[in-house]
């Protein structure tokens, strides 16, 4: 078995030397246990900030994977079945079944199991909860979403369209912007080449924004808040533009804007609604089956390329969900 260890806590942008590929000896599964083999591994933005307090130097990196049961002494997980597992960056894991989520039985044959890490997995759940539980997005409203061509953002925009909203999205390459148009976003722009972000936001929706699904933070956020309508709502999902900063952010925060526009801003983590995951995953799967929810994936081949895939995602290489196929 192989695993990727984090040798050093990240300082600034992660480096290849922060990771080391190691061999791991695994015990034979005991009664009630299973042996898992990774098929697809996820690389996600949260790994950058969360590794600071969830991973000790020398520990295996945190992460989720789709794995195949290759030995089983637990009838709930038969050999050949697939599960989503929080195994970290490992090729093989012995598990007693705790925390394993079986792939939905109704999963269509022609849909890659990797989607259980993306559109029909944690990022898809995040999109649903941000829209429904935090924003309470209503038909006819205008929604802004950034990092819009990514795993979460691309689902956010499409669900907002399903709900009958106007959707404005930003992303960092022209190819991503073209993809957002294909997905049915109403207004899209490349935030890197647009010149004035303020003008781009105003042009895309001169009457302002009812809701803002925030994935990026930093200066984007400051500018976007000025374009909210009065009583606008902001779901703070992520802040990827500051994850690699060595020193914590200090303002200025647009408090005056928040007051004058009487905005409501709420940070959230998808885990708050864990009790709703089974039902929400079924809805996401149904939307995919019905052709209402489209997806792309950025697949890196080879377990040995985990760090490269992770760093590439942080740099914006991916359209849709970034995953590694073993
Ligand atoms: P993505 O698939 O969107 O990949 C990350 C993307 O972020 C890149 O492709 C890049 O796209 C963009 N990006 C990177 N650096 C910057 C920067 N400096 N400024 C602006 N954009 C940048 O990742 P996810 O969809 O998985 O995650 C999106 C956000 O949602 C993240 O902030 C993440 O932490 C958050 N999240 C929060 C969860 C929660 O429960 N609260 C759960 C899951 C995700 P581009 O080319 O457009 O710049």
Provide structural commentary.
With 326 residues, this protein is α/β, with parallel strands linked by helices. It has 2 domains: 2-118 and 296-325, Quinone Oxidoreductase, Chain A, domain 1; 122-271, NAD(P)-binding Rossmann-like Domain (Rossmann fold). Helices cover 27% and strands 25% of the residues. The protein is built from 9 helices and 15 strands. Strands 3, 4, 5, 6, 7, 14 and 15 form a 7-stranded mixed beta sheet that branches. β8 (142-145), α3 (151-162) and β9 (166-171) form a beta-alpha-beta unit. The structure holds NADPH dihydro-nicotinamide-adenine-dinucleotide phosphate. GO terms for molecular function: 15-oxoprostaglandin 13-reductase [NAD(P)+] activity; 2-alkenal reductase [NAD(P)H] activity. Its EC number is 1.3.1.48, 1.3.1.74. One of its GO terms (biological process) is prostaglandin metabolic process. Monomer or homodimer.
Q: Which ligands accompany this protein?
A: NADPH dihydro-nicotinamide-adenine-dinucleotide phosphate
Our count of helices gives: 9
Summed over residues and divided by their number, the pLDDT gives a mean of 97
Tell me the CATH architecture of the largest domain. Answer: 3-Layer(aba) Sandwich
Low-confidence segments, given as residue ranges, are none
What order do the helices and strands follow?
EEEHEEEEHEHEHEHEHEHEHEHE
* Assembly state of the chains shown: single chain
CATH class of the largest domain: Alpha Beta
- State the share of residues found in helices, binned by percent: 25-40%
Determine the structural class based on helices, strands and strand pairing.
Answer: alpha/beta
E-strand count: 15
Tally of domains: 2
Principal-axis shape: globular
CATH topology of the largest domain: Rossmann fold
Gap from first CA to last CA:
12 Å
CATH superfamily of the largest domain: NAD(P)-binding Rossmann-like Domain
Largest sheet: 7 strands, mixed
The radius of gyration computed from the alpha-carbon positions, rounded to a whole number of angstroms, is 20 Å
Keywords: Acetylation, Cytoplasm, Fatty acid metabolism, Hydroxylation, Lipid metabolism, NADP, Oxidoreductase, Phosphoprotein, Prostaglandin metabolism
EC number: 1.3.1.48, 1.3.1.74
Enzyme class: oxidoreductase
GO cellular component, one term: cytoplasm
């Amino acid at each position: 078995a192989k695993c990727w260890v984090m040798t050093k806590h990240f300082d600034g942008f992660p480096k290849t030397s922060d990771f080391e590929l190691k061999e791991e000896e695994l015990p034979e599964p005991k009664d009630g246990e299973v042996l898992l083999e990774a098929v697809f591994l996820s690389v996600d933005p949260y790994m950058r900030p969360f590794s600071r307090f969830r991973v000790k130097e020398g520990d295996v990196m945190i992460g989720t994977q789709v794995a195949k049961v290759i030995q089983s002494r637990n009838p709930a997980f038969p050999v050949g079945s697939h599960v989503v597992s929080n195994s970290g960056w490992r090729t093989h894991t012995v598990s007693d079944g705790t925390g394993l989520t079986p792939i939905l039985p109704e999963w269509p044959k022609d849909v890659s199991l990797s989607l259980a890490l993306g559109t029909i997995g944690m990022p898809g759940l995040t999109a649903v909860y941000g829209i429904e539980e935090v924003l309470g997005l209503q038909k006819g409203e205008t929604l802004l979403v950034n990092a819009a061509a990514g795993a979460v953002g691309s689902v956010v925009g499409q669900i907002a369209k399903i709900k009958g909203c106007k959707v404005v999205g930003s992303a960092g390459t022209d190819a991503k912007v073209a993809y957002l148009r294909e997905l049915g976003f109403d207004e899209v722009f490349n935030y890197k080449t647009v010149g004035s972000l303020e003008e781009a936001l105003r042009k895309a929706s001169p009457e302002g924004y009812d809701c803002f699904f925030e994935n990026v933070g930093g200066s984007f956020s400051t500018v976007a808040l000025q374009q909210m309508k009065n009583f606008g709502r902001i779901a703070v999902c992520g802040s990827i533009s500051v994850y690699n900063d060595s020193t914590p952010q200090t303002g200025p925060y647009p408090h005056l804007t928040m007051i004058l526009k009487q905005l409501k801003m709420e940070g959230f983590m998808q885990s708050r609604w864990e009790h709703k995951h089974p039902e929400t995953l079924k809805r996401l799967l149904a939307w995919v089956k019905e052709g209402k929810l489209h997806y792309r994936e950025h697949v890196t081949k080879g377990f040995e390329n985990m760090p490269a895939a992770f760093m590439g995602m942080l740099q914006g290489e991916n359209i849709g969900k970034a995953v590694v196929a073993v």
